[in-house]
From TrEMBL:
Pfam families: Methyltransf_29. Keywords: Glycoprotein, Methyltransferase, Signal-anchor, Transferase, Transmembrane. InterPro entries: Put_SAM_MeTrfase, SAM-dependent_MTases_sf. Gene3D superfamilies: Vaccinia Virus protein VP39. One of its GO terms (biological process) is methylation. The lineage of its organism: Eukaryota, Viridiplantae, Streptophyta, Embryophyta, Tracheophyta. The keyword Calcium does not apply. This is Methyltransferase.
Amino acid sequence: MRGNILDQTSKVLSFIFKKKRDTMIFSSLKVASFGGFLLKENIMTLSFAPRDSHKSQIQFALERGIPAFLLMLGTRRLPFPAQSFDFVHCSRCLIPFTAYNGSYLIEVDRLLRPGGYLIISGPPVRWKKQEKEWDELQVMAGALCYKLMTVDGNTAIWKKPAEASCLPNQNEFGLDLCSTDDDPDEAWYFKLKKCVGKVSMVEEIAIGSIQRWPDRLSKPSARVSLINNGANLFEIDSQKWVRRVSYYKKSLGVKLGTTHIRNVMDMNAFLGGFAAAIVSDPVWVMNVVPARKPLTLGVIYDRGLIGVYHDWCEPFSTYPRTYDLIHADAIDSLINDPISGTSRCDLFDVMLEMDRILRPEGTAVIRGSPDVINKAAQVAQSVRWNAQVHDSEPESGSTEKILVATKTFWKLPLTSQ
């Protein structure tokens, strides 16, 4: 089993295992016990929660070694590609799905893979004094042609149709398809829509059509064909990162594959080749696709991996000291405008954010041109990292250098009064 999921209970677990499918779950977070249980079953669950009265529940989840992300459903799309999660799970998350013309349920529909499952446990499902909300939720799910599979106590499970959207149809919410100008994969500072996006390749990326784990990791999905020369790039990228990871471990002493590293962030993931190359190690990888680069994150989810869109000229949505290893390929491309080539922010600011995210004694692996890596080494020294600059793999030539750094424990000296 392998896939992408969002969180839930024992009733849901029995349903998941009965289906025997590769699964990726997107889940609301209650200290991530649901995601922690599924992780050992080789089911990848990305749990999320805002910073609310629970304070640091995301940080607690990451300390447990469980994938989690600081996030809330508000006025913008969540930073994930369309049709990426096999299950979306909400446990007492109190999201008013039918409010604002159903914008929140439409966003869930955008994220859910064709043939996937929506699981809601708690309000408003058969909840006292929320009968109206429960009725509206059923009506709206029906307008999207979701099939109500079961209602057990306060847990309801719907199945999304595996074929193209049944809209437009007559419904009291006025739901309709978005225009052809709308790209459902656009998700960085993109406002929520009150229409349902049209998705290409519905049948090819539906549950049951996507390849099973572990084949899906190494074979290009249908979405690769949307990239120019995609299948060839996929193969080249996969082989390249197998060689590079071997070099990291054998020649640079990076402790991948050991208990020192439980979670990894790949700041420039492209097609997820780095994460795929370390899939046999006891780690999970947060694949980050820069928002100004090609939207390849859907391919990463098709591989059974997880990730988010982000702009590295802004802070990343996580607590301090939460990742064991941060990997940054072509770090200069994260701060330069892809069209003009000019810098949008400073290398120092990006590395300072890396220092915030990295645990003490965590590792940073940074790749770039010799000039950029020399600058990165100076920044590393200024933030008190122990850093060494290495030559890249022989097949990479002399166009790149690699900085391997360890974040140290340190504290400000006491000042005399």
